[in-house]
Specification:
This protein is of the alpha/beta class and 229 residues long. The chain has six helices and eleven strands.
Length: 229
């Protein structure tokens, strides 16, 4: 299977209106910024996006929010994105806020073929409303269902043309679990090498989960919120 594609535009081929997408990253760390920019240019709309947060105004998923291409966000954090906050509070954007650990586990479960699991997170809050409750060890737990997507789009530090991926530091975040949960997984990497050049003991996402891969150029590596003293 030829997995290597030329660029982000080729990688997102087949993403159409109304699809559900998973996008790796945490804040601006490890986000598939080239694919997001390509989708902004493509004009695809009515998207459901599963991501920890929605970037910042004018960058990352903030681009798709700005152009009203996202219908629903499934996330754990509004973050530093004023447009995300505005659309959520005005009712222009459907938002499902999920505790961060539950979001990660729902993605992991989707990739592992586990349809649902029980967790204590969210019990007794709006998160738990209408969900089945069971008691384990004397503590109430709510039933959460797995998440999957039409496309999972991730960003890695290094990859090979077979789709094996290595993430760097905290940029690993949601990327490995989302890479497993997409019907089609797209990986953009900073460095693309030939099979056999990666240490197999260091691979985080095996190539079996990846259908398309390309090397991006000129990553911005922005800082979401700069703190100085």
């Amino acid at each position: 299977m030829q997995k290597r594609v030329t660029d982000a535009r080729a990688a997102i081929a087949g993403i159409t209106d109304g699809m559900t997408l998973m996008l790796g990253g945490f804040g601006l760390c490890g986000i598939p910024e080239k694919c997001i920019a390509a989708m902004a240019d493509s004009g695809v709309t009515d998207l459901t996006c599963i991501s920890n947060n929605a970037g910042v105004d004018g960058f990352g998923l903030g681009l798709l929010l700005q152009s009203r291409q996202i219908r629903k966000m499934i996330a754990s954090y509004v973050g530093e994105n004023a447009e995300f906050e505005r659309q959520m509070l005005s009712g222009d954007l459907e938002v499902d806020l999920i505790p961060q650990g539950s979001l990660a586990e729902r993605c992991r479960a989707g990739g592992a073929g586990i349809p649902a699991f029980f967790t204590p997170a969210g019990y007794g809050t709006e998160v738990g409303e209408g969900k089945e409750v069971r008691e384990f060890g004397g503590k109430p737990h709510i039933l959460e269902t797995a998440l999957t997507a039409d496309f999972a789009i991730v960003k890695a530090w290094k990859g090979d043309t077979d789709g094996n991926l290595i993430y760097k530091g905290t940029a690993r975040n949601f990327n490995p679990v989302m890479a497993m949960a997409g019907r089609i997984t797209i990986a953009e990497v900073e460095e693309l090498v030939e099979p056999g050049e990666l240490d197999p003991n260091q691979i985080h996402t095996p190539g079996v989960f990846v259908q398309r891969i390309f090397q991006g150029r000129d990553y911005e590596k922005r800082i979401e919120k700069r703190t100085i003293r």
